[in-house]
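Researcher: Go.
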Amino acid sequence: MRRPLAGRITTLVAAGLLVPALAACGADDGKSASAEGGDSTLVIYSGRNEKLVKPILDELEKAIGAEVEVRYGDSAELAAQILEEGDRTKAGLFFSQDAGALGALSKEGRLAKLPQSSLDKVDPAHRGSAGDWVGVSGRVRVIAYNPGQVAEDKVPDSIHDVVKPEWKGKVGFAPTNASFQAFVTGMRVLEGEDTTREWLKGLKANGKTYANNLATLDAVESGDVSLGLINHYYWYEQVAEKGADKVGTKLRFLPGGDPGALINVAGVGILEDAGQTESARKAVDHLLSEKAQTYFADTTKEYPLAAGVTSSVEDLPPLDSLEAPDIDLGKLESLQETLAMLQDVGLV
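Model: Structure:
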């Protein structure tokens, strides 16, 4: 087990990911205080942005009957931190921005199996195949487009179309963004290394890079590019903030199981032998409760994943209507290979 862990840590260090996490989370040589003290405190390592999830995590103390300590950071960094700490980790619950980081911990045997009652709340497509993590909210990759530059019937129906010559200089994307990297990982799993590498070369030739999804969407609206590869909820957040008539972009949800229509999830897993199992299980169930799921739907504009909860966001296609690719989200754990490929083609 140590060999793949060393390889993963080495890659994350090389990519500049691990060192900030070690500094932020403060690894030490002793057993965590929470593990020694039982369930008096639940420590959450959260790869989700504090601004987005703090309101719902602030409710946890009352919901689970224990103190809650949250440490925020990048999901890949925090996963690497947990792997480095091993059974010394302070974390009782890992709240990841994407399935890949959860898959990495599952592969290393760091996550405890969840109760079946918790797993059954979420469709199998949105939880770990080993039953040790579960998605709590979902997001889909889409193409944003500027209708002043591209007629609706000319918008690509496949991610493969954006690398065609007619889109040279007209495609925006954020190669350092975790969601973009997860999508590339999914493409590698679905279509292989060679196809993905050639696609990335084409994207580099055709595209313009931006710092994040929001900057990409803004570039589409300003006309700097005609198309942008983003997550759906950034557009819906702008609509909620400005009003639909004030947003100068539209979205294309890709059909036919295209890799560009990947549905990724933010999810949670309980750390094996961290001594916080009871509180962590209660926290998982709270995040899957109607109240928390409604928060994700209405506030962050993501898809709620627990059965029986639907989004009230206007014009958001129902989750079960999307034609996403068929993929085991746990296989998105191979971030190191994706980073190496992005570096090799000169995108990061």
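Model: The radius of gyration is 20 Å.
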